[in-house]
Write a structure and sequence with these properties.
With 339 residues, this protein is of the alpha/beta class. It has two domains: 212 residues, NAD(P)-binding Rossmann-like Domain (Rossmann fold); 101 residues, UDP-galactose 4-epimerase, domain 1 (Alpha-Beta Complex), CATH 3.90.25. It contains eleven helices and 13 strands. The strands form four sheets. A seven-stranded parallel β-sheet has the order 3-2-1-4-5-6-11, with helices on both faces. It has a two-stranded parallel sheet with strand order 7-10. Helix 7 packs parallel to helix 9. Bound molecules: nicotinamide-adenine-dinucleotide. Nicotinamide-adenine-dinucleotide (NAD) binds next to helix 1, helix 5 and strand 5.
Length: 339
C-alpha cells in the first residue's frame, strides 16, 4: 500500500483525520500551504500519535510544485480537504474561491490520474442540497441551484471527480458533511481558524471565553420545537472515522473502477440553536450572553441528514452527540486561551 495524501492536513478536519488514519495504520503525508492553518498542528499530531507527518507547503494552484510531490511520493489514495470554506467571503470574492477550490481540484485530479492514484475521497458539504424541502436529507435529495460561490465550487468539484474518473482505474467517495464541530478528546488539536469563525459552536465558545461580546440567535419564531433553527452537528472525530472507513470501503473494491459514491455524514439528529446554548451552559456551568434577534435572510428552519447509506455501506455510526461536541469544543477553547 502506498501513502495517503491528505490535502489540507493542517486544517481543522484534515488534522483530526490524519490522527485517525495514523491510528488505523496508514502512512500519511500532508499538503497544506497554511492559508488557514499553522504548521504547529503537526507537532500536536505527533504528540497524539507518536508519528511524524511530513507536510508539503504547496499551493494546489501551483501545478508545477504539485507535480513534484507526485514524482517524489508513491501515492495510493487522496483525501482532499484543502479549500476555502467561508460562504459569506465567497460571495465577496468569487474569483478567489473559484481559483482556489476549482483550479486546485483540477490540478490535483490531473496529477492523480497521471500517477495512477487508486482512490479519491472528497470533502463536500450539505450546502449542495440548498434549502431542502423534505427532511431528513438523503443522498437522493435533489441538488439545488447553488446559493454561493462556495456552494457552487463544491457542486463543480463533485462533478469534476465523477466525470474525470469515468473509465479510469480510480474509485471515489464524495462525502457531504453536515455541521462539523468539537475537538479531539486529548484537546491537543481543535478548530483554530485564522479568520473569525461563523459557525455556531465556535461562536458560542468564543462568547463563553469572552473574545466575542454576545451571540445573536437569528429568530425564535420558526416552526421548530423551541422556535430556533435546527442543524445537524457532527463531532469532528466521528467525521474523521468516516474518512478512514470510506478509505477502507474503497480498498475493499466494492465499487467498480471509475465509480464514485456519495455519502451524507451527519448524526440524523437535529439540535436547535437554543439546545446548543443550553448544552454549552451545562458543560461550562456558566450562563451564555445571547440575545434573540430577527430571522436572518436565507436561513432555513431545519436541516438534518439521513446517514443510513453510510451506516450500511461504510459501517459508520457516529458515537458522539451535542454534549461531547460542546465539552471538547469548550475544552479546546480554554486550552487555546490558556485558561
Ligand atoms: N468545517 C466545516 O464546517 C465544513 C463543512 C462542510 C464541508 N467542509 C469542507 O471540508 C474541508 C475542510 O474544512 P476545514 O473546516 O478543515 O477547513 P480548514 O480551513 O480548517 O482546512 C482547510 C485547509 O486547506 C488549506 N488550503 C486551502 N487552500 C489550499 C490550497 N490552494 N493549497 C494548499 N492548501 C490549501 C488551508 O490552509 C487549511 O489548512 C473543506 O473542503 C471544506 O469546504 C467543511
Amino acid at each position: 500500500m502506498g501513502k495517503v495524501l491528505v490535502t489540507g492536513g493542517c486544517g481543522y478536519i484534515g488534522s483530526h483525520t490524519l490522527v485517525d488514519l495514523i491510528e488505523n495504520g496508514y502512512e500519511c503525508i500532508s499538503l497544506d500551504n497554511y492559508l488557514n492553518s499553522d504548521p504547529s498542528v503537526l507537532d500536536q499530531i505527533k504528540e497524539i500519535t507518536g508519528k511524524e507527518v511530513h507536510n508539503y507547503p504547496v499551493d494546489l494552484v501551483d501545478k508545477e510544485a504539485l507535480s513534484k510531490v507526485f514524482q517524489e511520493e508513491e501515492i495510493e489514495a487522496i483525501i482532499h480537504f484543502a479549500a476555502l470554506k467561508a460562504v459569506g467571503e465567497s460571495v465577496e470574492k468569487p474569483i478567489v474561491y473559484y481559483r482556489n477550490n476549482i483550479e486546485g481540484q483540477i490540478n490535483l485530479m490531473e496529477c492523480a490520474l497521471q500517477h495512477n492514484v487508486s482512490h479519491f475521497i472528497f470533502s463536500s458539504s450539505c450546502t449542495v442540497y440548498g434549502k431542502a424541502e423534505t427532511l431528513p436529507v438523503t443522498e437522493e435529495t435533489p441538488i439545488a441551484s447553488a446559493e454561493s460561490p462556495y456552494g457552487y465550487s463544491k457542486q463543480v468539484c463533485e462533478r469534476i471527480i465523477v466525470d474525470s474518473i469515468h473509465n479510469k482505474n480510480m474509485t471515489a467517495c464524495l462525502l457531504r458533511y453536515f455541521n462539523p464541530a468539537g475537538a479531539h478528546e486529548s484537546l491537543k488539536i481543535g478548530e483554530s481558524p485564522i479568520n473569525p469563525p461563523q459557525n455556531l459552536v465556535p461562536v458560542i465558545t468564543e462568547v463563553g471565553i469572552g473574545n466575542r461580546k454576545e451571540l445573536k440567535v437569528f429568530g425564535d419564531d420558526y416552526d421548530t420545537r423551541d422556535g430556533s433553527c435546527i442543524r445537524d452537528y457532527i463531532h469532528v472525530m466521528d467525521l474523521a472515522d468516516a474518512h478512514t472507513k470510506a478509505l477502507k470501503f474503497l480498498e475493499s473494491k466494492q465499487l467498480v473502477e471509475g465509480q464514485a459514491e456519495v455519502f451524507n455524514l451527519g448524526t440524523g439528529k437535529g439540535t436547535t440553536v437554543l439546545e446548543a446554548i443550553n448544552s454549552w451552559e451545562e458543560v461550562s456551568g456558566d450562563c451564555l450572553n445571547y440575545s434573540i434577534s430577527n430571522r436572518r435572510a436565507g436561513d432555513i428552519p431545519a436541516m438534518f441528514a439521513d446517514y443510513t447509506k453510510a451506516k450500511e455501506k461504510l459501517g459508520w455510526d457516529p458515537k458522539r452527540g451535542i454534549r461531547e461536541i460542546m465539552a471538547t469544543a469548550w475544552g479546546w477553547e480554554k486550552v487555546r486561551n490558556k485558561m
